[in-house]
Design a protein that fits this description.
5-stranded parallel sheet, 2 domains, 19 strands, single chain, FAD/NAD(P)-binding domain, 313 residues, alpha/beta, 7-stranded mixed sheet
């Protein structure tokens, strides 16, 4: 193990969305000299969103990439060591914790903040990737506003899909729900909300074959019914609500997660079951998944790490 290039640090932050960068800002100002690895998607999920209008302090809205650049610049200003690289192995059996980067560099860290986020599940259609940010979205609360008075479709039949569909129905002229089965998986109350919303139409036993559009963005969707019938609907926006996958696989040997893989944190803190390891952002939040809540939990994690180091000198 020691034949690897080894480095000893006080605080390692894994992940670079609002939670990771906010942790870096706070940890740097507390003189923890944090090292942050950005992972596969520097800036996190927000870099796939075009316009963010609900983050406080940006009254005119801001592009997702630009906002993450601001977060990053602020962390750098206070001395955070931000690097490109991917964590390929962790060993949380004892402190300092051993974390391998890109299979070749070993970091021994007194504290670790996990901020690796969650990834929206997609259907796997090429057209989905083609129109990402051009009418295809995995977040109704982020992007719904842009479809005011327009026609949209929501894929999914669970609580999230029902919640997103009813939210979009308050803004859009028409919402189609594309549901694979002949029933909704959602809770009774959510099913009733959908049934009682005039401008939601549920398309039962349907799968998405293709998202249609041109260089201006999404213009329609081609669906196939269980019966084999293929038909199209004109839409302006296509929303995925088939769940998220928390990026926690590499930590699960050591860290307690729920059934879906979200890291379990103690009470209102960022503490995990391993003392000295903290979690922030969407990796531990299946409920809110907003940039502002992720940033807030990143602040908590850095403060928890600072206290932990003071108590365990």
């Amino acid at each position: 193990m020691m034949s690897m290039n080894t480095e000893q640090i006080k605080c390692l932050i894994i992940g670079s969305g609002p939670a990771g960068y906010t942790s870096a800002i706070y940890a740097s100002r507390a003189s923890l000299k944090p090292v942050l690895y950005e992972g596969l998607q520097p800036g996190g999920q927000l870099t796939t969103t075009t316009e963010i209008e609900n983050f406080p302090g940006y009254p005119k809205g801001i592009d997702g990439n630009a906002m993450m650049e601001d977060f990053r610049a602020q962390a750098l200003r206070f001395g955070a060591d931000i690097r490109f690289g991917i964590v390929t192995k962790v060993d949380f059996s004892q402190r300092p914790f051993n974390i391998t980067i890109d299979e070749e560099h070993l970091i021994q860290a007194q504290t670790v903040i996990i901020a690796t986020g969650a990834t929206a599940k997609y259907l796997g259609l090429p057209s989905e990737q083609q129109f990402k940010g051009m009418g295809v979205s995995a977040c109704a609360t982020c992007d719904g506003f842009f479809y005011r008075g327009k026609v949209v479709a929501v894929v999914g039949g669970g609580d999230t899909a029902c919640e997103e569909a009813t939210y979009l129905a308050s803004l859009c002229s028409k919402v189609y729900m594309i549901v694979r089965r002949n029933v909704l998986r959602a809770s009774k109350s959510m099913q009733e909300r959908v049934a009682n919303t005039q401008n939601i139409e549920v398309l039962w036993e349907c799968n998405t074959q293709e998202i249609l559009g041109d260089n201006m963005g999404v213009s329609g969707v081609r669906l196939i019914r269980k019966s084999g019938e293929v038909f199209e609907k004109k839409i302006d926006g296509f929303f995925l609500a088939i769940g998220h996958h928390p990026n926690s696989d590499i930590f699960r040997e050591w860290i307690d997660t729920d059934e879906e893989g979200y890291i379990i944190t103690k009470g209102k803190s960022s503490k995990t079951n391993v003392e000295g390891v903290f979690a922030a952002g969407d990796i531990q939040d299946p409920n809110y998944r907003q940039a502002v809540t992720a940033a807030g939990s990143g602040c908590r994690a850095a403060l928890d790490a600072e206290r932990f180091l003071l108590e365990n000198k």
